[in-house]
Amino acid sequence: MARWNFLQFNQGRLFLDAGGDFFLADRPFPQHSTSYDFFLRAGGGISVRVSNSYWVESAFHFSHISNGLGFGPGNPAWQGNGLSLGIRRAFRHAPEARGQPLFAVLRRADENAWLTSAEYYTPLPGFDRKVANFQGDLRALRISRAWHFPNRVEFQLGGTVQKSDTATGFGPLLRWNAIETGRWRWFADGGADFLQTGSPAFIIPWTGDGYTSFLRGGGGASFRLQESYWLETTFRWVHVTTGFGSGTGNYPRWSGQGLSLSLRHTFR
């Protein structure tokens, strides 16, 4: 399981996580399936510190169980959601030296940050809300790493998961902070993602999956909430190019507009 603590304080944490298990059962599950299955889950939750070494955690997860019969039609699945409650035992490790960015140009950044963003886009006038197998509205979660430079230029690199047609992507974004004050920043930005569109149950693309480019550009504002956290909102125009690879006929061109709301955690 991989976890992202997007909001972190001394006594509490808010997180997103996702993981996968392989398990064996004493009977076929789901029914008419096999006794060996893959269990995938993703969601988020909260951790609360109750002592120096112990935390109480609760999370809500969406889950998917798929058997080991492959990708054929005889592959019954089970999907659901639910809660987890856990006790976390923490212990210290020897301090580690702070790593340096891989590329020398990134070492010149005067501020580093992680961003957790919720994005929502709707079609431009004249575009159908649903065309063929492509859902009209795009709803996405994005996690990005940002490097801010003294000349007000910022480079971001991140990944996204879109609920619409179950797309996952990865790509860069370039930002220009035109106005910077102590508590406010006004900016314009633009970027592009490489998208892979297909079933959430399979990491490896399969027949019917498609590949597209997701272009976006716009502007917005950041407001400093406290020393390390900023709240950002952005308006963007977006465009999805024609698909390529297998399943290209299912993914037509699409253009839209919408908003992004982000929580930015900065560090030096």
How would you explain this protein's 3D organization?
By secondary structure, the chain is mostly beta strands. It folds into two domains: 88 residues, no CATH class; 160 residues, Porin. Helix content is 0%, strand content 63%. It is built from no helices and 15 strands. The strands form three sheets. An eight-stranded antiparallel beta barrel has the order 6-9-10-11-12-13-14-15. The protein has a five-stranded antiparallel β-sheet with strand order 1-2-3-4-5, with no helix packed on it. A hairpin with a 4-residue loop joins strand 10 and strand 11. It is globular and about 60 Å long. The relative contact order is 0.14. About 2% of the residues have low confidence.
Walk me through the topology:
Layout: E1 2-8, E2 12-24, E3 36-49, E4 54-67, E5 77-89, E6 111-123, E7 130-131, E8 134-135, E9 138-148, E10 153-162, E11 167-180, E12 184-197, E13 210-224, E14 229-240, E15 254-267
Antiparallel strand pairs: 1-2, 2-3, 3-4, 4-5, 6-9, 6-15, 7-8, 9-10, 10-11, 11-12, 12-13, 13-14, 14-15
